[in-house]
Structure formats: C-alpha cells, structure tokens
Specification:
Number of helices: 2
Distance between the termini: 55 Å
Largest sheet: 6 strands, mixed
Oligomer: single chain
Number of strands: 6
Radius of gyration: 18 Å
Helix content: 10-25%
Shape: globular
Number of domains: 1
Length: 129
C-alpha cells in the first residue's frame, strides 16, 4: 500500500512539474467584493475592440487567456468564455488578440526544451444589467 502511495505521489509531482504545456488563465477582479451569482449564464457575448457597446453593464474583472502550444484561436476563445462563466460574466468587452512567448519544459531545469508563440486573448468581463 505504501509503495502505491509513493508511486502515485511521484507521478503527480512529475506531471505538475511541466511548465508551458497548459493554457494559462488570469483573472483580475475590478471590485472589492466577490461576485456570487446564483445562476450562471451559459452564453457569453463577445465584443471585440472597436465594436459598439449598446447596453449598460457592471465591470466584474479583467480576463486573460494564454493558449497552450498547439491551441488555435477557437480553443483560446472557448477558454476565455469558460472563465467568464466561472466569474459570473455574461459578456466580454474590448477583446484584444495578442501573442506571448512562452517556454515549455520541466521545473527546476535551467534550460527549457523550447519556446513558442502563444495566442492570447484578453478583455473586460462584464455583467449586463
């Protein structure tokens, strides 16, 4: 039994020591209070930079998603929407696309395996009134 626990713990530590292989999601709240929504919307409206905003809204927070190595635009936008739903947002406004250089490899190893350009999307998560 102890041997199984040690093997399982080793596998978990090794799998979490990989860096740069997973999407990176960042949320910065814009309110002092935590938003608690009783029902979460399943649809998130996207408004890219320059599109008109013809509704009143409450700002919830800044949402940023860096895609993994082989993620395409669709994958990253789906992650952006998922994070918005988790944070009680039903729209994201001012969305911009960018690229970020990310490194992949193992933690505690000085030389990383390689670097790659990651697709990045960020915007302001809002709740329509």
């Amino acid at each position: 039994m102890l041997k199984r626990i040690i093997v399982l713990a080793t596998i978990i530590v090794v799998s979490y020591s990989c860096i740069g292989y997973y999407p990176k999601e960042i949320f910065t709240p814009l309110q002092d209070e935590t938003i608690n929504c009783t029902t979460k919307d399943t649809i998130v409206d996207l408004y890219f930079e320059g599109e008109p905003i013809n509704f009143e809204y409450e700002k919830i927070g800044l949402i940023e998603v860096h895609g993994a190595n082989l993620d395409n635009d669709k994958d990253v936008i789906l992650l952006l929407k998922k994070m918005a739903i988790e944070k009680c947002c039903n729209a994201i406004i001012g969305i911009k696309k960018g690229n970020t250089v990310r490194e992949s490899g193992l933690v505690f190893v000085e030389k990383h395996e390689y670097t790659y350009n990651s697709t990045t999307y960020f915007g302001v998560g809002v709740r329509k009134k």
